[in-house]
């Protein structure tokens, strides 16, 4: 080996999609040996390396990523390298003059117990866990830590047998043994090539619950869920969800599980929700553990979705992964689409779609309309951890959905088959996915690709004209997308519009377009800035029901109240029936907010009240839908529609509306509340979930209309101690009051659930979201509560982010104290966990949409964060983008 200096490439401040270059070396196999010790774990790695002809430079050095590693030794083909033969920097290791194929051995020491970033190998509750996506594997060993390097892995875990009886990694255990000093070892081999971000290791004193799944082709898969002792009675639901997901993917996509073992491990300290490591998913405990008395129905549903999501990644993510992190939506958007479809198929399709769209609007539209807006495929990033966003995930799923809407379900399914056949065991791009869809359908996606490359939510408006004599209806649609950071000009999108024409009797009307007569829902494509669609043989003047089932992620405007009321009552599309009622409520409440700002009092709109009364008529037949229809648009939905957001006016009007509806329909709410009492059996079927949701909605209106009656019922509901769904809503309603019942109930709740971390998270979150006047002082006090721990992401999120995201009233308190609280907590969190701290900057993202006084205070909070000289690059990137 020539001893000449090797330049260390400067760490790239900004990564650009346009700069993609294939890796200089590929790794065929990697064999790892872990000597697990909390303070000093030794990792020995053997890499079989091969030059990659696709890189283009046959003399390129080997560049290995590495972070927070202590290098003990490095050898090439068995010969130890002396320090002159490599360059070791803060970001990795560079070795020049390597042969075209060689074996590299490295030996490093890491400190899992000191790893508060929770990226790489870390300790939680005394046990070992990993999180490697996106760039955590480089914190375990030196490696080309990029997803287009796919290798076959083995991992030998060596640990004290008494303390770490469970030793898990990807694939199958092939060998094990004991050593004289009380150490034991297990060797795992994963037969499938995978990128380093899918590596996982779990070691500890865990208990497990086992089951099995017989695949469509008759293979038996051993299923295991590993949790801490005492939690084993909270995994039944997750196991049911896992088996249901495995079956669904076989039935709907023809995708079978491909290993003999599928394990899930739950960890209480976790930066994200869950992780799809091959054969060994690692989950935040919040997304595994559920028992009726500790988890709400919303938790049960979320767990179902996330179990499905991570399982579905086995094909969309693991078997076909991403070439680079710009393609993140290739796996995330597609997998969210798949988990949404699973949810629609296994629960109520319309309700499931409504919840998904509310989530999209609540997070993604907000992101897309502010300084953090970025395309589904971002062109550049500083820290990839900052791009696990609602846009990449939820908008990415909508883009996949639009592809299916445009080419049809059959062609879409064929396209999926082609995608797997063509890209199996490779690291693919979004072009590969869309190319498969083109091959299956013949559709030209050139213009459609703008959905991946242009940020921003298109605004769509419409106008209709009916010519009675000609029986002709002309629908004109217009689209426009506002500029987003770095993209001043927007070209028109291809927007699939699923629509129906509703006649005066409320029924769908037939109409002919492009020679085709359809009476129900059809799809037209809006491809220009403005475009007219002419329907002939239309019997009467219709109301167009547009974007049925939310066929595109756009903002639609143009309906008047009479049209909305008609559609809410009659639209044949379940989603649009809800949507029309929701839009009606938004318009009425925005008007009430404007009146409030002029100093006028609140008067309850008859239509708003009557729609709630009509929902109560459906209470017995469709309780879940009734509960959904009873609700009012949230504060963030109203804020989203105001030119200058006025959080005090929004709160005042929402409170007044709830009080007025609760007063007007008090007797009916009380009656239905009485009829929906606990029926003795806990089940998560739609009828039971619906009953509880309806009961809770009634309780909230009873409380709003008659506080004394509400407090008494809430106390009784808690005392009945039926399910967390019922207890938590009752507690949250009490926490919004200043009644002495509040502190009594909180103290009792804390005492009852002390030691159950996930329930204590709820204890923090409901206080953080309270509208009570002393909330700011109380959340300050909660930071000094013995159960508050800034190092635990769930606890941090349950106090700081629940406050920032879900307490518009007090976060935006005119004093600026709410901003100051989040800024201080962010700076403190940044010292321990930069990825969790960075996410908190999102709560400031719409700062320019407030009045000048609040803008000044939010800008000052951001400037204080940016001025901190030891700020992490993660939080710096987010704060600077938001501040811009
Ligand atoms: N791939 C995981 C999932 O969506 C999430 C990983 C999150 N990683 C991160 N750095 N935020 O299922
Ligand atoms: Zn995912």
UniProtKB/TrEMBL annotation:
Gene Ontology MF annotations: alanyl aminopeptidase activity; metallopeptidase activity; zinc ion binding
Aminopeptidase N-like N-terminal domain: residues covered: 35-198
The protein's required cofactors: Zn(2+)
EC number: 3.4.11.2
Keywords noted in UniProt: Aminopeptidase, Hydrolase, Metal-binding, Metalloprotease, Protease, Zinc
Pfam families: DUF3458, DUF3458_C, Peptidase_M1, Peptidase_M1_N
Domain Peptidase M1 membrane alanine aminopeptidase: 241-451
Reactions catalysed: Release of an N-terminal amino acid, Xaa-|-Yaa- from a peptide, amide or arylamide. Xaa is preferably Ala, but may be most amino acids including Pro (slow action). When a terminal hydrophobic residue is followed by a prolyl residue, the two may be released as an intact Xaa-Pro dipeptide
Superkingdom of the source species: Bacteria
Keyword Hydrolase tagged: yes
Enzyme class: hydrolase
Function description: Aminopeptidase N is involved in the degradation of intracellular peptides generated by protein breakdown during normal growth as well as in response to nutrient starvation.
NCBIfam families: pepN_proteo
Family under the similarity heading: Belongs to the peptidase M1 family.
Name this polypeptide is given: Aminopeptidase N
Provenance organism: Acidiphilium rubrum
């Amino acid at each position: 080996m020539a001893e000449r200096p090797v330049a260390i490439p400067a760490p790239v401040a900004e990564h650009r999609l346009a700069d993609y270059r294939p890796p200089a070396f590929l790794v065929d196999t990697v064999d790892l040996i872990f000597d697990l010790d909390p303070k000093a774990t030794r990792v020995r790695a053997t890499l079989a390396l091969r030059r990659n002809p696709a890189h283009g430079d046959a003399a390129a050095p080997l560049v290995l990523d590495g972070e927070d590693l202590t290098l003990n030794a490095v050898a090439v083909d068995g010969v130890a390298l002396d320090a002159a033969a490599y360059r070791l920097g803060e970001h990795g290791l560079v070795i020049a003059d390597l042969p075209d194929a060689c074996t590299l051995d490295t030996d490093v020491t890491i400190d899992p117990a000191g790893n508060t970033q929770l990226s790489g190998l870390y300790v939680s509750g005394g046990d070992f866990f990993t999180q490697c996506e996106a760039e955590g594997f480089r914190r375990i060993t030196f490696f080309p830590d990029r997803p287009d390097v796919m290798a076959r892995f083995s991992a030998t875990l060596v640990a004290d047998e008494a303390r770490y009886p469970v030793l898990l990694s990807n694939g199958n255990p092939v060998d094990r043994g004991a050593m004289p000093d009380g150490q034991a070892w297990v060797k795992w081999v994963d037969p499938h090539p995978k990128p380093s971000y899918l590596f996982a290791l779990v070691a500890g004193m865990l208990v497990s619950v086992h089951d099995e799944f017989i695949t469509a082709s008759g293979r038996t898969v051993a299923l295991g869920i590993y949790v801490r002792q005492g939690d084993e009675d909270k995994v039944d639901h997750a196991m049911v969800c896992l088996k249901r997901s495995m079956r669904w993917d076989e039935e709907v996509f023809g995708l079978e599980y491909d290993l003999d073992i599928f394990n899930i491990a739950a960890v209480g300290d976790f930066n994200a929700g869950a992780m799809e490591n091959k054969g060994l998913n690692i989950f935040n405990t919040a997304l595994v553990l559920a028992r009726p008395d500790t988890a709400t129905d919303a938790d049960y549903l979320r767990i179902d979705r996330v179990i499905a999501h991570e399982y579905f990644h086995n094909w969309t993510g693991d078997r076909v992964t991403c070439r680079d992190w710009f393609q993140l939506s290739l796996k995330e958007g597609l997998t969210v689409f798949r988990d949404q479809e699973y949810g629609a198929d296994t629960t109520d399709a319309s309700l499931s779609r409504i919840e998904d769209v509310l989530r999209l609007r609540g997070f993604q539209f907000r992101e897309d309309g502010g300084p953090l807006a970025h395309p589904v495929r971002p062109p550049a990033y500083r820290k990839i951890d900052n791009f696990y966003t609602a846009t990449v995930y939820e908008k990415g799923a909508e883009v996949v959905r639009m592809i299916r809407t445009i080419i049809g379900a059959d062609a879409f399914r064929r396209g999926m088959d082609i995608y797997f056949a063509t890209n199996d065991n490779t690291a693919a791009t979004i072009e590969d996915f869309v190319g498969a869809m083109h091959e299956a359908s013949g559709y030209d996606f050139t213009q459609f690709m703008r959905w991946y490359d242009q940020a921003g939510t298109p605004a769509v408006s419409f106008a209709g004209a009916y010519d009675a004599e000609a029986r002709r209806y002309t629908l004109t649609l217009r689209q426009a997308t506002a500029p987003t950071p770095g993209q001043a000009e927007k070209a028109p999108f291809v927007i699939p519009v699923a629509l129906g024409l509703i006649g005066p009797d409320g029924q769908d009307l037939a109409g002919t377009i492009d020679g085709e007569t359809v009476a129900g829902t059809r799809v037209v494509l809006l491809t220009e800035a403005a475009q007219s669609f002419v329907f002939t043989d239309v019997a009467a003047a219709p109301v167009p029901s547009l974007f049925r089932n939310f066929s595109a992620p756009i903002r639609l405007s143009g309906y008047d109240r009479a049209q909305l009321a008609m559609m809410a009552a009659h639209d044949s599309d379940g989603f649009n029936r809800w949507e029309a009622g929701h839009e009606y409520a938004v318009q009425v409440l925005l008007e009430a907010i404007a009146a409030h700002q002029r100093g006028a009092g609140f008067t309850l709109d008859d239509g708003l009240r009557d729609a709630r009364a009509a929902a109560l008529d459906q209470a017995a037949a469709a309780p879940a839908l009734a509960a959904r229809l009873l609700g009012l648009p949230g504060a963030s939905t109203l804020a989203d529609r105001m030119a200058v957001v006025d959080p005090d006016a929004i709160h005042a009007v929402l409170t007044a509306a709830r009080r007025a509806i609760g007063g007007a329909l008090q007797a009916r709410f009380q009656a239905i509340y009485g009829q929906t009492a606990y029926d003795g059996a806990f089940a998560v079927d739609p009828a039971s979930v619906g009953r509880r949701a309806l009961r809770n909605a009634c309780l909230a209106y009873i409380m709003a209309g008659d506080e004394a009656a509400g407090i008494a019922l809430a106390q009784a509901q808690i005392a009945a101690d039926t399910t967390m769904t019922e207890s938590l809503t009752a507690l949250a309603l009490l926490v919004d009051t200043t009644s002495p019942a509040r502190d009594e109930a909180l103290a009792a709740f804390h005492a009852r659930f002390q030691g159950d971390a996930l329930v204590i998270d709820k204890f923090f979150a409901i206080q953080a979201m309270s509208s009570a006047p002393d909330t700011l002082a109380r959340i300050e006090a909660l930071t000094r509560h013995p159960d508050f721990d800034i190092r635990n992401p769930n606890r941090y999120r349950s106090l700081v982010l629940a406050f920032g995201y879900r307490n518009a009233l007090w976060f935006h308190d005119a004093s600026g104290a709410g901003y100051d609280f989040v800024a201080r907590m962010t700076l403190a969190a940044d010292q321990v966990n930069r990825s969790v701290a960075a996410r908190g900057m999102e709560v400031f993202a719409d700062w320019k949409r407030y009045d000048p006084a609040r803008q000044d205070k939010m800008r000052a909070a951001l400037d204080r964060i940016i001025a901190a000289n030891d700020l992490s690059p993660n939080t710096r990137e987010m704060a600077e983008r938001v501040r811009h």
